[in-house]
Amino acid sequence: MSIDWxxxxxxxNSKNDGFEELCCQLAEAESLSGYESFVRxxxxxxxxxxxxxxxxxxxxxxxxxxxxxxxxxxxxxxxDASFRVALAKHPKLTHYYICLPQDLSDGRVKNxxxxxxxxxxxxxxxxxxxxxxxxxxxxxxxGQSQLNQRLAKEEHRGLAWFWFNTPAFTNHWFAGQIRDAVxxxxxxxxxxxxxxxxxxxxxxxxxxxxxxxxxxxxxxSKARSAxxxxxxxxxSDFDFSPLKNSTAELLSLLDAWLRSTKDSESSRMVRIVPWxxxxxxxxxxxxxxxxxxxxxxxxxxxxAENEAGGTTLIDDRVRPLTSAIWDFQAAMSALGHYLNxxxxxxxxxxxxxxxxEAGQGKTHTFCRWAQTExxxxxxxxxxxxxQFQDSEPWxxxxxRVGLSCxxxxxLGAIVAAAKAAKKxxxxxxxxxNEGDGKKLWIKYLAGMIQRVRELKWIRLCVSVRDSxxxxxxxxxxxxxxxxxxxxxxxxxxxxxxxxxxxxxxLRPSAPLMNPEFDNPLFLKLFxxxxxxxxxxxxxxxxxxxxxxIRFLLANKNSKLARELDFDPNDNLVERAxxxxxxxxxxxxxxxxxxxxxKNLVNELLPRSSYEQSLFRNLESEAILTSVPLRxxxxxxFSEVVRFTYERFSDHLIAETLIAVERDQIRSVGxxxxxxxxxxxxxxxxxxxxxxxxxxxxxxxxxxxTGKEIFELAKxxxxxxxxxxxLTVD
Length: 729
Description:
alpha/beta; CATH 3.40.91.50; Rossmann fold; five-stranded parallel beta sheet; 13 strands; P-loop_NTPase
């Protein structure tokens, strides 16, 4: 690759900053035996841009100056000043590198000093001054030739491509990628509306964002405060030195990961957090404080025996000490609980696997994270499973973002962009189960994760429908990714519902207790239906699940009638749902083969285009969902279709079963012998297995027949056994 230093990518609108960052990235990539930590400096830089620290504490430091023109007196003075600051500020400096984007001229003209002559004189002076301080410092020059030589290495192709040969990977370029991706999410993401959930804490730990460091810092600060109070209360009767030492070691280890100085910011973003070492020292503190507490209790007991019936002097001194010990133990316990939480363990993961049911908000979450992190300056890409075909995924990603390069160039450039931003890059791939994902990811995902793990500066975040997880995500991949169970609005449904109602200008008439409102997509569809129907108040009659189902189906029928151009009075959505629920009722299950479902639905509205088919649109409107069904014999699976929301499915099937037997029940007052409902309720194990359906029957039978389920199925073992768990809307 040809390197033109005039084409160097600027950083922060400055080629000086760009050159400094490039030199630091090359310095970090140097293979140096015995050196264990790399530090990137900020401003002011104490004469160095970055430095490596050896196991013995000595340092190699680099200084970069983007001088492209003639080196005059001012330039030489700047170079000299930088060295002298480094000499004073870095007492363990043994090697000092000066980087310039030019080679030193050596014209050897009579009575005229060349750049090479001036450099040699400076080096001689610097070494002499260092020797006066009892130090030996090796001075190394990295000019254009030395830099080009490093950039030409195979492992630096992506680095060189980033800094010199591509307009991609700028903030503007990433913004365009995110904008296009968010547009592709369509109505699955609303950038102006968000309800915060617990999943954010996992992601903060993964990318080590400010909230993560702040949370760790707060727990450490509380532990330190409790320790300081405890040691202030220490009395000479007891030996506090073991506890003091173990506490100091633990806090020192944690402090190493909490330095907020710019010196440590870059490396702490990707270095493995030593949770095992931290827990070892935390356990030592716990053992020491428990031993001290035991000694204090025993001494207090003996003192009390010697001063029978009276208050001892040691009692008066021990009371505040005991209180301080309790506070210290509580603070250490809280610290341990946080450091060992699933969220915090994400900090050492190569990425996350977000798993959840349909409509739980996985796409919204990814879009939100991608937008937020991009605005913070992090390099971010967002892609969707539906965009992938059954072929090597890295090449598809490269093509999708409009680039022409190989995998290593692309990833090398991403790493360079991440280092320049001082934040790990994130690649999001939402909904692995869509498109050709059912064949693709089981073959390639583990290798992708391994490559990301090796590069350190990239995190991979993927999501998958829970029913497809075991089929799509390889076991090896599951062990490398932190697993997040996305539970939608579970636990915050009241807050979410209030926010949604406010957004859509609705007033609830009563608290909505249906568990479906834990599902963000369901809550959104519900509010949209009311809004489009001209409602302001949530009708009281919609508190029951059956009323909600009818309301949503009618709303979807109106919407699809407009989009697919059919007469809304034909009620195709409700008829399609009835066809499917009837087939499910006949087969005694809540799902049917996908091909059968397509045929049943599309017969109502024949269309040549799949995108315009009724079945496709019932899926896109979240009425239906496809799930995998493993073959009982041999590998592989087939897809089946069910209603997206389980309680909808139960109530729709119940409604169909009751419709078949309604006349019999009304005329005779009991279930027909051998009917499907009677057979279900007579089977104890079937009642437990299909408890949702039994509950739906318990709700709808009284509404339809005026009789309770217990009256209609007298003595049925299944009803008797499961009756305690039945709930009625």
